[in-house]
């Protein structure tokens, strides 16, 4: 039987989008938690990690309540023609939320490992905070951010529970590889399931190997 490559294409589309979303939100939050002291900092850190420990069904339920057709946000998104629930965009949000803690914690650890004295030297030279972040802090925390990006991509690629709750399992629209493999197993199409499992495993392993090599070169 001919292989169905639509779930793989959709998975890569969702995963790349989710990884970029997490990268541009998780890194600033990781820096904020590592470098700033403010009321509620620990609570914010705990909330950021919460998707990692909550059951996927619970996390998916929260997202449905927030983004569903009965919520104010969901109704507003639908009114502007940008609904999220049961769309591939909803799958992006689901994968991003599920993998968000991996990026935040990796970035936070990287920024905490940067010697503040180096940033202080840059300040004495008249550098702005923005310039210090881009020229000093970020390059020194680069290894952790690369590792966090790789883990985020791998986690988003394999998300099942949250995606199922928020985006559903609609072939050709929201059915990612993880959901497709589940359907193949349920239909007792073992050979196809094995093929898809090998593909997604190989993709994940290659990504992690590349990320590890990149971080080693940065030493």
Structural summary, described in words:
The protein is mainly α. The protein has one domain: MetI-like (MetI-like fold, Orthogonal Bundle). It contains 11 helices and no strands. The longest helix is centred in the N-terminal third of the chain and has 30 residues. It is globular. The N and C termini lie far apart (about 45 Å). Belongs to the binding-protein-dependent transport system permease family. CysTW subfamily. Part of the binding-protein-dependent transport system for molybdenum; probably responsible for the translocation of the substrate across the membrane.
What secondary-structure arrangement, pairings included, does this model have?
Layout: H1 6-35, H2 41-53, H3 56-67, H4 72-79, H5 88-112, H6 116-124, H7 129-140, H8 142-157, H9 161-167, H10 177-186, H11 190-217
Helix pairs in contact: 1-5, 1-8, 1-10, 2-5, 3-9, 5-8, 5-9, 6-7, 8-11, 10-11
């Amino acid at each position: 039987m001919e292989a169905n490559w639509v779930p793989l294409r959709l998975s890569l589309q969702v995963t790349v989008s989710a990884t970029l979303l997490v990268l541009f939100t998780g890194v600033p939050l990781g820096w904020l938690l590592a470098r700033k002291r403010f009321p509620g900092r620990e609570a914010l850190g705990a909330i950021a990690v919460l998707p990692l420990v909550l059951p996927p069904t619970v996390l998916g339920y929260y997202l449905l309540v927030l983004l569903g057709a009965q919520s104010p946000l969901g109704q507003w998104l639908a009114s502007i023609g940008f609904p999220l629930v049961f769309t591939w965009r909803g799958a992006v949000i689901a994968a991003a939320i599920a993998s968000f803690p991996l990026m935040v914690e990796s970035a936070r650890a990287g920024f905490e490992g940067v010697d503040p004295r180096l940033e202080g030297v840059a300040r004495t030279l008249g550098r702005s905070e923005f310039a210090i972040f881009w020229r000093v802090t970020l390059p020194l925390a680069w290894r952790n951010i690369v590792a966090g990006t790789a883990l985020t991509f791998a986690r988003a690629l394999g998300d099942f529970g949250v995606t199922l709750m928020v985006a559903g399992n609609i072939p050709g629209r929201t059915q990612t590889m993880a959901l497709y493999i589940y359907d193949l197993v349920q239909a007792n199409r073992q050979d196809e399931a094995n093929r898809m499992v090998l593909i997604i495993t190989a993709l994940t392993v290659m990504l992690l190997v590349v990320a590890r090599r990149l971080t080693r070169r940065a030493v």
